[in-house]
Every structure is written in structure tokens, then in C-alpha cells.
Design a protein that fits this description.
mainly alpha, 5 helices
Amino acid sequence: MKKPGRNEPCPCGSGKKIKKCCLQAPEPSTGSTFIYTNLDELSNQVPELIRQEKYNEAKEVCQKLLKQYPEQIDGLHRSAELFEAMGDYEKAATYYEQTAKFAEQADGFEKKSVEYFRDKAEQLADTGKE
């Protein structure tokens, strides 16, 4: 079984990336430090805002992610999560499909992640039709 990638959603369901949640990394070597970036900070705000049902604020953060970090998956993935939480399954499905395409073309994402995003897109597209 292959180890999940650091940028994949954490299986614990927190909404965070594995690298920011349950990753059991070995102790860093002497002199190395983890750098918490603005991208990480913005991305990790979205699940908390969703939990608090602050959808407008979460949407603003998603828009910042999409604008400031178009080369990263975070804006697409967080937008998908947001629209799913808001019950807009059609938009959520569209964002999950875009997230799957991004992961498929980018380095660092396993086939399992792409399949997860595609499955979510299909599931939500079907839910939106009901």
C-alpha cells in the first residue's frame, strides 16, 4: 500500500491537508524548520469558517486562494468543500471535477486522490439532479 501524499485531504475528515493534520513526520534534522506559509494559513481557514457557517467569509478566502495561488490546488479544493457545505451541489461538483483535473496533471498527487475528487464530483452532480 502506497503512503498518501502530503497534499491529499487528511483521512481523519478534518478538511486539512495531511501535512497539516495527522502526518506523523520524523523529527526534523538539526537546523531545519517548518515554514508555515500564507497559502497554508489561508487554506486552513476555510474548513473552520465552514464549521462556523461563515460562508461569505469562507468564499472570500477561497477567492483569494484562487487569485493568489492559481498554481496550487487549494483554491479549487476549498471551493468545492464550501459549495458542498452550502448545498450548492452543482457548483461543488464542478469544483471537484476541476480539482481532479488539477491533481491529475500536477506532481505529488496519487491516483487515489484523483479518484476521490472525481467520485465526489459524480456523487454531487447526481445529488444536484434530484
